[in-house]
């Protein structure tokens, strides 16, 4: 019997055209086990590349292509996995986010935790998805702070003292083991494992993949020895398990781990909103240069799906930030507000991104849709561009995180009623989901995008109320 159970395969999309779908598959075995050979449909066997090895495990990656067919398959060991690999015509894409909760996530009853994942897996079995977009907080890693007493002491210390705490060898080893093993436990989960082996994913991290609010904390926290060490451990694990990249490959990507991937008729762009985040910025020079480069390579007229892990369109937050600044007793929520594009600290950068997307729509004829999670609610927003086209913001959050109290939804709804207009004559309108009365829906959920011919639609699957009517994009 194997010392450690095998985890995977986890399938990753690398882009496709009308002939072939470029893929990678991640597999984790015990360090005394030989990795099986992967055999793609109609092709020669593919040997694995060793990406990493530690904690009694080896992480392998298989790089391969499948023919662009709806009934493509690949074999790994004794099991055959179907993949809907033709993305050139009608297709379905699933979007999920917020896969966990801050405390006790993996101690919940499995059936309760993964109820929406199981529902999504059943849907895929009957009507396969071509892509699975995972838009942030795939891993709730906040409990890393309890994995070592030194990490907890550092986190609880006053900001002025954060840089006085050393990042010891024991803390580094504990953090690296925590992130590594947490990902393994996550990808073993029922529903998640079945889906990730059959539907190619594109993933981007957010704060909980590191620790709550990462990047929006004071610079003295971020730049302390423990802060830098913790981020490095989380970054390496994210690159390995959410990008299928080795440490060397992640380092070669530079200061940002964002990326773009091209498919027939559309492009998915996933900027990294955490690696360069500071209290006064969302992306740094590397992130902006990469984003503009990905947009430049995409074809005119194609749809752009932008995975912005925090919602691009949202309610007015400046008054709330002012209130929190004036009332020290609730100052702990300042980091949560600064995480948002709508924060006063990010307003100029927010406008820059919105203008960039408007140019894509007006000058290049691209339909632009932003896909986001983070807020543990479902909602949508719209902003009209100068040519009359509409930027759609679709929020699906979260697939496993419990819904917040009803008062939270109501409070955000009141803020949404105030309106927001970061660009002149471009008001943001937050709207209910199709068939719903209130702007925010407090149920666990996932999003389904469909392309039929050249027409795109979106609908939400709600835990209690089921499928919403389709929204034309």
Question: Can you tell me about this structure?
Answer:
By secondary structure, the protein is of the alpha+beta class. It has helices spanning 110-113, 115-126, 149-156, 169-187, 192-196, 219-222, 225-242, 247-252, 285-297, 318-326, 334-338, 347-364, 406-417, and strands spanning 7-16, 20-30, 38-40, 49-54, 57-67, 72-76, 79-83, 91-96, 131-134, 201-203, 259-263, 266-270, 303-307, 368-372, 379-384, 390-395, 420-423, 426-431, 445-452, 455-462, 466-467, 471-472. The chain is globular. Strand 1 and strand 2 form a beta hairpin. The chain has two domains: 1-87, Immunoglobulin-like, CATH 2.60.40; 89-472, Alkaline phosphatase D (PhoD) (Purple Acid Phosphatase, chain A, domain 2, 4-Layer Sandwich), CATH 3.60.21.70. The protein is 28% helix and 27% strand. Helix 4 runs parallel beside helix 7.
Biggest pleated sheet = 8 strands, mixed
The CATH architecture name of the largest domain reads: 4-Layer Sandwich
Assigned CATH superfamily of the largest domain: Alkaline phosphatase D (PhoD)
The total domain count is 2
Radius of gyration from the alpha-carbon trace, in angstroms? 22 Å
Biggest sheet strand order reads 11-12-13-14-16-15-18-17
What name does the CATH topology of the largest domain carry? Purple Acid Phosphatase, chain A, domain 2
Structural class: alpha+beta
Q: Could you say which overall geometry the principal axes of the C-alpha atoms support?
A: globular
Strand portion: 25-35%
Number of helices: 13
Question: Fraction of residues in helices?
Answer: 25-40%
The total strand number stands at 22
Please report the first level of CATH classification, the CATH class of the largest domain.
Answer: Alpha Beta
């Amino acid at each position: 019997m194997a010392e450690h159970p095998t985890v995977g395969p986890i399938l990753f999309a690398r882009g496709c055209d009308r002939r072939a779908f470029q893929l990678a598959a991640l597999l984790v075995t015990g360090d005394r086990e030989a990795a099986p050979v992967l055999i793609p449909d109609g092709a020669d066997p593919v040997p694995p590349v060793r990406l990493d090895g530690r904690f009694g495990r080896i992480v392998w990656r298989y790089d391969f292509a499948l023919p662009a067919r709806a009934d493509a398959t690949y074999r790994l060991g004794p099991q055959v996995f179907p993949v809907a690999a033709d993305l050139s015509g009608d297709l379905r894409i699933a979007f999920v986010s917020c896969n966990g909760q801050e405390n006790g996530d993996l101690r919940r009853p499995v059936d309760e935790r993964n109820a929406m994942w199981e529902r999504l897996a059943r849907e895929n079995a009957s009507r396969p998805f071509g892509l699975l977009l995972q838009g942030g907080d795939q891993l709730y890693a906040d409990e890393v702070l309890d994995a070592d007493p030194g990490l907890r002491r550092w986190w609880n210390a006053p900001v002025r003292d954060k840089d006085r705490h050393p990042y010891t060898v024991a803390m580094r080893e504990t953090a690296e083991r925590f992130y590594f093993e947490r990902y393994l436990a996550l990808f073993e989960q029922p529903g998640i494992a079945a889906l990730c082996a059959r539907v190619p994913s594109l993933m981007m991290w957010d704060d909980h993949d590191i620790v709550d609010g990462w990047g929006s904390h004071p610079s003295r926290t971020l730049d302390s020895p423990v802060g830098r060490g913790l981020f490095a451990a989380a970054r390496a694990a994210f690159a390995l398990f959410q990008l299928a990249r080795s440490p060397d490959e992640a380092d070669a990507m530079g200061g940002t781990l964002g990326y773009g991937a091209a498919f027939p008729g559309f492009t998915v762009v996933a900027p990294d909103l955490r690696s360069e985040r500071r209290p006064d910025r969302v992306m740094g020079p590397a992130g902006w240069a990469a984003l503009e480069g990905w947009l430049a390579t995409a074809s005119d007229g194609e749809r752009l799906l932008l995975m912005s892990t925090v919602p691009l369109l949202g309610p007015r937050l400046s008054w709330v930030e002012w209130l929190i600044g004036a009332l020290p007793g609730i100052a702990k929520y300042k980091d949560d507000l600064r995480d948002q594009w709508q924060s006063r600290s990010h307003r100029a950068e927010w406008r820059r991104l919105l203008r960039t997307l408007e140019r894509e729509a007006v000058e290049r004829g691209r339909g632009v849709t932003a896909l986001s999670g983070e807020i543990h609610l479902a909602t949508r927003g719209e902003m009209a561009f100068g040519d009359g086209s509409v930027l759609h913001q679709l929020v699906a959050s979260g697939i496993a995180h419990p819904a917040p109290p009803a008062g939270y939804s109501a409070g955000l709804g009141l803020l949404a009623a105030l309106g927001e207009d970061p660009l002149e004559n471009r008001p943001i309108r937050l709207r209910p989901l199709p068939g719903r009365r209130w702007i925010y829906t407090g149920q666990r959920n996932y999003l389904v995008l469909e392309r039929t011919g050249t027409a795109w639609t979106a609908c939400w699957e709600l835990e209690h109320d089921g499928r919403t009517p389709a929204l034309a994009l």
